[in-house]
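Researcher: Please predict.
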Amino acid sequence: MSKPTLAKGTRDFGTQEMLNRNYLFNTIRKHFNRMGFMQIETPAMETLATLTGKYGDEGDQLIFKILNSGDYLKDTPQDILNEKNSKKALTHISEKALRYDLTVPTARYVVMNQHSITFPFKRYQIQPVWRADRPQKGRYREFYQCDADSIGSNSLLNEVEFITLFDNVFFDLDLSATVQLNNRKILTGIAQIANAEANIIDITVAIDKLDKIGKEGVLKELADKNILPESIKAITPLLDFTGTTTDKLAFLKKYLAQSDIGKKGIEEIEFILNHVTTLGLKKCTLELDITLARGLNYYTGAIMEVKVNDSRTDFKSSICGGGRYDDLTGVFGLKGMSGVGVSFGADRIYDVLLELNLFPTTNPESTRILFTNYGATEALHCLQLIAQLRDNGINAELYPDTVKMGKQIKYADDKNIPYAAMIGSDEITQGIIKIKNLATAEQQTLTMQQLINFLKL
């Protein structure tokens, strides 16, 4: 029998990891709920037609396709099989795919349920997604997204609220972060000024890689995409410009003076910046990044990306992202439905919290007290006490076997259970409970009500 292995880009999660992950998910969920978002779930698989064409050519290549059931080759024309062209064969052998993100399935959900949901539709999802990417640090083939979207409202106050959402979540997690902000209308204006509107996707995908491949890498990619030299020359000043957000706005107002859509993008950016400045941020900083593009085709307005801003880590990848999409539901037949949404990259955030030792040492999901087992009579008595603790919202458990006390205490230590209860025949007769703090070895004797009050502290 071969040794069992994991598929590349996937992971198992043990008990402590799940405690940490649930702490992260619950922190994010708490703030979703506080802001009026309601939870939905969509299937792990969607039709391939639902997903393709929404993420750009690069994104489409990363969609995990699912082979049709049964003999998936039997209906494939022989000439295509002989040609060995996977793209041509795909429509014959695959009708479904694993979801690439949660936004497109949400757009599909909204269209299918438009007559039974309330608009603006504020929804959140915390579910896994799959991408056929090259696994590396902070990048997995299976990972969780924590998404929130507001669909059916044109107001830029939604963008303001999402930035405060980032700030509130990272305040609770004690993680400093920078929210980078741009607008696709600005990028469209840049393409106009460069007389390269037909190449807007190629331009945005290239300049979005500035922090990864540098100026020369971006210029090479633009040239490789057959962008005209004069257009590249017009774009180059953007790659060189540095300064404060105020400096960048002043630069853009001059650069985009002849582009109406570019000026509209600047106006929207200024609205968001002014409102966020008035409200104030506790843990995040907000900056304008005029090269931020986010290579997803469906963004039409504000785009956001969040990166860790902590000197204790060299983690460079984005941990959150999002933006405005004015007609995503249009591809499914529902026109004119504007929306804006964000996604928390839970797995990347997890890795950063773990590296910086920011997970709590105690967790409300873990067991608070272990009742040791002295025998059948004592165990039955302990189960009755445990039931009372559980009814009071206290996590408690009984060691199931009558074994040496050292083994039972080691079990508690291994599970980071802070207290052990030791109840023999004398304690049963007297109606008392002896407990031991396993960190300090301090012992005390309590009544049941005293124990409840103690463990609820």
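Model: The chain has a mean pLDDT of 91.
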